[in-house]
Amino acid sequence: MTTLANPPAADGEEVADLCRRHLSKGRATLGELFGGHLETDSRGAWVTSATGRRFLNCGGYGVLLMGARHPAVVRRVEAQLHRHPVATRLFLEPQGAHAAEALVRTAPAGLERVHFACSGAEAVEAAIKIARTRGKDQLIAAHEGYHGKTMGALSLTGKEVFQKPFRPLLPGVHHTPYGDVEALEELLKTMPGRACLILEPVQGEAGVVLPPPGYLRAAQELCRAYDALFVLDEIQTGLGRLGSWWGADVEGLEPDVLLSGKGLGGGVLPVSAVLATPRAFAAFDMDPYLHTSTFSGTPLAMAAVQGALAAIEEDDLVTRARDLGAGLLPELNRIARAHFGTLVREVRGQGLLIGVEFTEPGPAGDLLIELVHQGVVANHSLNSHLVLRFTPPAILTPAETQHLCQAFDSACRVQAARYNPTREGGTAHAQR
Ligand code: PLP
């Protein structure tokens, strides 16, 4: 048994067994599927197993833009931990105030108010409540969009497989094809003054789906025309991931509400945020008890936010994400096509959010597992089985970038042998 005097054993089988008995049988099986490695340490771009195996972490669901344990984050969190980790929530507290100010400084114009939460889904819930305070009882999201799995957020997440077991969900939710301006207008027309539109600047979990140029700006204009609240979910795309501070910056968007999360806690603590215009935030402004949660904006988390923003700024991670992505994307494209030929539908991305889409389910999952054998962690895409997703940190050195490309090349070579790539067309299938 594990006691304080007898710390947890670094034994994969024992942990899998504990996981099976106390956490989730499915989670244990998943861990075994990926090699049964016991992750115990992380630093920079690397995660290390109990046996000392190192993996380049290009996954982490987009959390680790600054890598693991960035000194600027750890230093601040450590200092705050030893000073004042949790607030009274009655007195004024400086860390939250400074974190909000620092975050607003990076954000599109007009977003002056901040509500901090812990998870991305919680930020989405808060946005839904803000919409209700503005009289917007109709929610519009995009097909295949991902906004989290709490009940409100799940109502927006456009994926049947996640929604079905939990119905009934929120009423008044509509889904529109991502990228289709006409379809959006048709919908908005039917509910003037009552809608709240929530979109991702690039759909991450849908498999890195980029909107046609001008779509987001047109969506914003339609929201203005039909008096709808415009919410940008930048939980995955924000903070430099796309090679710009925010996805909003690419088309100069000024949403009413913008959501942040993932890397906001510097890869160290769970933090998310809702940024809003004073008009959208008016009800939350008036009554600080209208929407609360015990651990929202703890000084410890707020120290992490300040560290994360400092790391992004001081290390110029936005530019590095843009430049690294510009080099990586064509290379991953070349490698994937060299091995899988016509089984590759498209390799696309923006900054360091890169997706490799196949024409059939199979290669994405097989490559995800094979990449682990080759020393790289990547992501699957929650809303698409066809897309293997890379979200590397923006701190990769040239040698680490080379490791990623070599591992991808080896993984593709091994897995492509199991398929029957048809470079000249025809039917492709796995050799199982
Ligand atoms: N919104 C977007 C765009 C996301 O990508 C995610 C998570 O992947 C979420 C919301 C939900 O965040 P969380 O998993 O922290 O609840």
3D structure, described in words:
There is one protein chain. With 432 residues, the protein is α/β, with parallel strands linked by helices. It has helices at residues 12-23, 25-33, 71-81, 94-106, 120-133, 151-156, 160-163, 181-189, 215-225, 282-286, 299-314, 317-340, 363-373, 398-416; strands spanning 39-43, 46-49, 54-57, 113-117, 138-142, 173-176, 195-199, 229-233, 257-260, 272-276, 344-350, 353-358, 376-377, 379-381, 384-390. The chain folds into two domains: 44-66 and 317-416, Alpha-Beta Complex (Aspartate Aminotransferase, domain 1), CATH 3.90.1150; 71-314, Type I PLP-dependent aspartate aminotransferase-like (Major domain) (Aspartate Aminotransferase, domain 2), CATH 3.40.640.10. The protein has 14 helices and 15 strands. The strands form three sheets. A seven-stranded mixed β-sheet has the order 4-10-9-8-7-5-6, with helices on both faces. The chain has a four-stranded mixed β-sheet with strand order 1-2-3-13. A four-stranded antiparallel β-sheet has the order 11-12-15-14, with helices on one face. Strand 2 and strand 3 (54-57) form a beta hairpin. Helix 1 packs antiparallel against helix 2 (25-33), helix 4 packs parallel to helix 11 (299-314) and helix 12 packs parallel to helix 14 (398-416). It is globular and about 60 Å long. The two termini are 42 Å apart. Pyridoxal-5'-phosphate (PLP) binds at residues 61, 119-121, 124, 146-148, 200, 204-205, 233, 235-236, 261.
Task: Produce the secondary structure layout.
Layout: H1 12-23, H2 25-33, E1 39-43, E2 46-49, E3 54-57, H3 71-81, H4 94-106, E4 113-117, H5 120-133, E5 138-142, H6 151-156, H7 160-163, E6 173-176, H8 181-189, E7 195-199, H9 215-225, E8 229-233, E9 257-260, E10 272-276, H10 282-286, H11 299-314, H12 317-340, E11 344-350, E12 353-358, H13 363-373, E13 376-377, E14 379-381, E15 384-390, H14 398-416
Parallel strand pairs: 3-13, 5-6, 5-7, 7-8, 8-9
Antiparallel strand pairs: 1-2, 2-3, 4-10, 9-10, 11-12, 12-15, 14-15
Helix pairs in contact: 1-2, 3-11, 4-11, 8-9, 12-14, 13-14
Protein name: Aspartate aminotransferase family protein
Organism: Streptomyces daliensis
Pfam families: Aminotran_3 (PF00202)
